User: Fold Alpha/beta hydrolase from Angustibacter luteus.
Amino acid sequence: MRARPAVLAAATAALLLLVGCSGGDEAPEPAASGPNAPSVSAPAVPDALSTYYDQKLSWTDCGDGYQCSKLTVPVDYADPSGATIPLSVIKLPAGKPKQRLGSLVVNPGGPGASGVDYARRASTSISAATRRAYDVVGFDPRGVATSDPLECLTDAQTDTFIGQDPTPDTPAEVSRMTAIGKGMGLGCQRADPALVGHVDTVSAARDMDVLRAALGDKRLFYLGKSYGTYLGATYADLFPTNIGRMVLDGAIDPRLSAREIDLGQAKGFEQATRAFVADCVDRSGCPLGSDVGRGMQRIQGLLASLDAKPLPSGDPSRPLTEGWGSYGIALGMYDKGFWPSLREALDQAFSRDGRGLMQLADMYADRQPDGTYAGNGTPALYAVNCLDRPVGDGAADVKAELPTFQRAAPTWGGLLAWGELPCTSWPLPATGKPHAVTAPGSPPIVVVGTTRDPATPYPWAQGLAEQLSDGHLITYRGDGHTAYMRGSRCVDKAVDAYLLRGTKPKDGLTC
Assistant:
């Protein structure tokens, strides 16, 4: 499972509006590059990388007030004189240039989501006050979207990958899942054998420091959501004293293993699904009945029936399988704004009509009406994750863990347990490993956690804030994935106070 920030930004229903919080102490003003920034020396740069750090971005108009450019980075930072790749960068200049603080680099998550697309939605993802004070800068990480994307799967192969049985019950089904996952890894390797081993998060974080310098900023100002928090934490681990201000919303705890992340997400989606069902059964005409426990069982029964007999979806070549149905239901857990659509889609599915759930699944997967995919998010997700953390040895390890997952999350446990299988046959070994990030010497770093977040469970935000040497947690009591600019004025006020004035959130701030 991953964040779908582009989809979330399009949600039209109102979210919870919670108030009643206040800011904390003023933090020292960090260095930026705007006219209001204090004078400070630039960070030291290794001689071997000076060519990259000294580059100047050439901006061209790319519509709607945005400017676009390309940033050159080495494929392998251990061999900076070797091959290079261009990263796509986009900028929305600060609305009030005379009050400009610098650049705010943003990343929406994934891994595999486009930072360029996310920056183009700045009007819904970043407050007006912050847009006036900062240039909003997005970039597509290496191997993603428009930055030398890894073309691992055809559109038809992506359909097969998503639509496959996510909870195999027989040796034949396990073998098929193993073969499909291995095929994706080999496809990535064939697509770009040089780059595929260097799309890890450490390399992307090093790219971000090159971007900081190319933007003319002495310190990095950053807003990361979901996986973007892991990218931000990795940057903080590598360059703690290069940070200006950093907000990590929907946090991942970098100490967690791949297995711990999968189990945490299984529990998170289970909790979020129960919240959805609890809301549904209190409404007249709920397709899940009037009892939460039975409602959960009905969703589980639906997924089991899709495994046995897929539903028609309006496209004879692509019925609603358990894989597609899981995607459709999962999307509803990311934002309460999707709950009405999910209720309607479930009602249709119980009447043997899979069109509604398939439409939600297509939104989750970024699948277009013509059958193409808007990006390479699905294979990029695995290409990055399989390098970032080692996994078990294969299907036998997954089977051994299945009882634990299924007890913790009867609806989602099996799917999340089997989700690591493609990485067990990935053609390259993992280069990263879980470890604590303390970022000694950094300025205050703000971490935001949502109590019923399905994809990045709240304990992860608590864990990241605790391990950072100067971490500060904002808690949002609510549903959905991430919190800033998602409907809570309390969260928005606290984050903006920090980004604009360096005001640290009050200890224990809960919205």
Observations:
- The first helix runs from residue 5 to 9.
- The mean pLDDT is 93.
- The chain has 20 helices and eleven strands.
